[in-house]
Amino acid sequence: MTFDLPVALAGLLLIPLAIAAYLLVQKRRSRYAVRFTNLDLLANVVERTPGWRRHLPAALYLAALAALIVALARPQMITAVPNEEGTILLVTDVSGSMNARDVAPTRLAAAQAAAEALIDELPQDFRVGLVTFSSGAQTLVPPTPEHESVREAIRGLYPRGSTAMGDAIIHSIDVLRPPPADGEGNGRWQGGGLPGEIPTDEEKEAFPPAVIVLLSDGFNTAGFADPLDAARDARALDIPVFTVALGTPDGVAEVVDASGRTRLVRVPPDEATLQDIANITEARFFSAPTAEELKTVYEDLGSRIGYTDEEREVTHLFAAAAALFVVTAGGLSLLWFNRFP
C-alpha cells in the first residue's frame, strides 16, 4: 500500500496518546469507586459491572479515528481491474494421444473442463476463440464475445490424428491478425518462420491485444512449421503464447497402427518445447499432470489475462470503515448504557 500524503500518517501518533488518556481516566474512576465505602448500598445500586463491554465503544472510536487518519493520507492499493478489451485464443491439442487416461477421466475431458473454467474467469466483454489441432489446425470458433458458443464447441471435441503444434501457432497468428484494409497482403510478413522482414510498429499496433493459450500433450509429429520458428513469429508480433503441458511421462494411449491393430503407445508431453515456446514469446509455461492442476492453471490464466493489476485510490474504503466504527460504537453505547459517549 502506498500513500499520496504520507505525512498525514503522523496523525496516528494520536492513537497511543488517546489510549493513555483513556487508561488514566479509567484509573481515576477506579480510585473514586474505592472511596465509596458503603459496599452494600453499591451492590443494590449496580446489579452487575459492564466488564469488557464498557471498553468496546471506546475501542471502536479509536479504530474510527485511525481509519480517518489513514484516509487523509489518501491510500492506494494494487487491485485487479477487468481489461476493457482483449482476445484470448484457446489452442487445444485434439490428437489421438488425448484419449490417454493418466489424467482422469481422459486428457481431453480434463482439458474441456479446464477450458470452460478459464472462460468463466474472463470478463464478459472479452473475446474468446477456439482453435484445435491434430494432423492440422482449424478454427472452430473465431474470437467472439459470445462465450457460450465457445463452450459448446469445447464440449464437442474428440481425439484423432497426430500433433501439428507449429502449424497450430501459425494458424492462430492468422486468426488473430486483422485482414489488410485493401483486402490484399502487403507482401512483407510471411510467417511460419519463413524469411521476411520484421513488421513495423504500426503493423504490430494493428493487432488487437491478444494472447494464445496453447495446450498440448505430445511432441510435434505433423505439419510444416517448426514450433520454435512459429513462436518467433508470434514474438515478432508481440503475441504471448502461454503453454500448458498436459499429462504424465508414463501416460499411454490406444492407437491404431497401419495394419489396423490397436496397441498401447507411450505419449509423454513435450515439456521442453512448450517451455521454449513460452520463453520465446515472453509468456509462461505450466505443467499439468492432473485434472485438478490443469483446472487450477486455467483459472489462474483467466485471472492473469482477463485482469490487469492497477494502483487505485482506496480512500473511500477507510472513510466507510470509520463511519461504520462510529455508528457501531454509538449504537452499542445506547443499547448497553442508555447514553451516547
Description:
- The chain is of the alpha/beta class and 341 residues long.
- The protein has 2 domains: 103 residues, no CATH class; 207 residues, Rossmann fold (3-Layer(aba) Sandwich), CATH 3.40.50.
- 43% of the residues lie in helices and 19% in strands.
- The chain contains 11 helices and 11 strands.
- Helix 1 packs antiparallel against helix 3, helix 4 runs parallel beside helix 10 and helix 8 runs parallel beside helix 9.
- The longest helix is centred in the last third of the chain and has 23 residues.
- About 5% of the residues have low confidence.
Give me a quick take on this structure.
With 341 residues, this protein is of the alpha/beta class. 43% of the residues lie in helices and 19% in strands.
Give a quick set of tags describing it.
alpha/beta, 2 domains, six-stranded mixed beta sheet, three-stranded antiparallel beta sheet, 43% helix
How do the strands and helices of this protein lay out in sequence?
Layout: E1 2-3, H1 14-35, H2 39-45, H3 56-72, E2 75-82, E3 87-93, H4 107-121, E4 127-133, E5 137-144, H5 147-155, H6 165-176, H7 201-205, E6 210-216, H8 227-236, E7 241-246, E8 252-256, E9 262-266, H9 271-280, E10 285-288, H10 291-306, E11 307-313, H11 315-337
Parallel strand pairs: 3-4, 3-6, 6-7, 7-10
Antiparallel strand pairs: 1-2, 2-11, 4-5, 8-9
Please give the alpha-carbon distance between the first and last residues. 33 Å
CATH top level of the largest domain is: Alpha Beta
| Share of helix, binned | 40-55%
Order of SSEs: EHHHEEHEEHHHEHEEEHEHEH
**Globular, elongated, flat, extended or rod-shaped: what is the shape?**
elongated
Number of beta-strand segments: 11
**Rg measurement, Å:** 32 Å
Mean pLDDT across the residues is: 82
Strand numbers in spatial order across the main sheet: 5-4-3-6-7-10
Number of domains as seen in the coordinates: 2
CATH superfamily of the largest domain: von Willebrand factor, type A domain
Total DSSP helices: 11
Low-confidence stretches: 181-196
Major sheet attributes: 6 strands, mixed
From the 3D structure, determine the CATH topology of the largest domain.
Answer: Rossmann fold
